[in-house]
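A note from the maintainers: we've had questions about how concatenated examples are separated. There is no special marker in the raw files; a new sequence line simply starts the next protein. For clarity in this README we add a label.
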Amino acid sequence: MMTHTPGPWEKKHSKRLGWAVVYPGISLLAKAGAIVVVCDTMNEEDATLIAAAPDLLAACDEAVQALMLLSPDCLDNVDFSLSRDELINKIFSAIVRARPE
């Protein structure tokens, strides 16, 4: 199974390369082998979202686990458009997209 590069990640900016997402402490001019995500069209908002990806994925994993401990009707009396199972499925679908294998 393929796994993602563990976080935390951070966004950095340089005049030469623009926005990038890197491991903390890695220079944008990193040595060969270092993971650096650089895209000439990446804006700050994209870099912020990508840098948050490991934390968002972990939060989704934890949310699914917590929701599965609740009763299926736990959201029935809440002004929320999804049922517990629909919410679990929506989060799980996002997890599957993030971990395709």
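[label: protein 2]
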Amino acid sequence: MTARECPVDKAEITRCRTAWLPAAAALLLFFFPLLPQVSWGQGKTDRIPIQKPSAQPAPKPQVPAPPAPQVPSVPGVSVDFELEMKKLESLLSLNDKNAEAYYNRGWLYEYKGDMPRAVQDYSKAIELDKKMKDAYYNRALALARMKKFEEALKDLSEAVKMEPASTDAICNRGSIHFQMGKLDLALADYEAGLKINPNDPDLRYNRALVFLAQGNKAAAGEDLKRAAQMFHDKTRKEFPELAPQVPAHLKKAALDCRVGEFLSHMSQETQQKVRLFEESRAKVDKAFEDLEKNARQILGDKVQRQKNTLAIPIEGTDPRWTEIFGPQWPEMVRQNPKEPRFFYLAQEFNWKEECRILQRFQACLENPAYCQETALPNSALQMRRSSGSWELADGKTPQEWKQAQVLGEGMVEITQWVSKFLAENKGKLAQEEMALAMAKGYTERLMNLTSKVKALK
């Protein structure tokens, strides 16, 4: 199922967005303090279970015409209903057998709140393509909003049959059973979903509601504790006594941009990408530290370093420096004859925009009021809502992660080459001659690396 995982507030369906350069590589385990005993007053069993949202359109036009629009689903951004509808009407006028176009139009009607028309178009899509599981899934949610629960259950069961691991469909089927008062069936669905994904806090929360309705407070408490430990929004808001304390060290980790300390708030796939970047970053830092040590031994204490930039002192009067700095260099030297001059070696390979994301995320963990999805440009990490909880999600394409890996490996090679060059030519070349040759080789290698990285796009 291609549905996004986010809760709905009561019966209203909401949608989530389908959500560089990287501090400590070790994964730290977070130890939460003991949670207090759960206690509820009477009459708290009327909470409505969480449902999963509709699948978004995934158009695959079957005629050589402009593609059916993929309707935006960014929270807070309105869909231009009339414009998108005109595009779909145009597409259907060319081919009235286009199941994807009917599916997309059904999504638009559902977005607009016109459930009967949404059901009609989803039904047409299914008529044309009996295997379109997203159409069954979305039609089920539209039918449920129309209180046609029996029909909705049939569609969800069909969706589960097509994709047995779809926890979204299983969760929604359980929620319908719950609303129909069929608690045993609801419990069976939630438990089936948790067997597939034990870390889905929405399912934990929903099963807790069934346990509460059955009077089993002990079992409900265990599920709510687990959901709270995963920072599940509804659990934190409705049962604040269960909300875990955010580890104190995370605030400083966010300020210091130590991404590695947030690994437990990422998916396994994102964790792996972050770890690989951290390994590359550590190698770059180690190579640069070795270069600084060697450069000071060979060129003297006038070598300066600020973060990952090394300043090599030069005279700069040799006309060959023009090949490095450009034709304006001689005039700059003439105008400032006594000014110290340097050739700079810079190896910036660190997290940048991600530091801001970490600070936002840490604030979100402390207070749900600060939680908001992000789309910060150039950031490898973004804040996303998944199954009612917030996580640090992957913000880059596989190609961009590959570029980062190649860039890191290339930086290590170049830095090691500079260090080796200085060691091999110590005493063989005058210092200025050695600086010139080093600068030329460094620049050429850096340009080659840049071209190699760009070629990966």
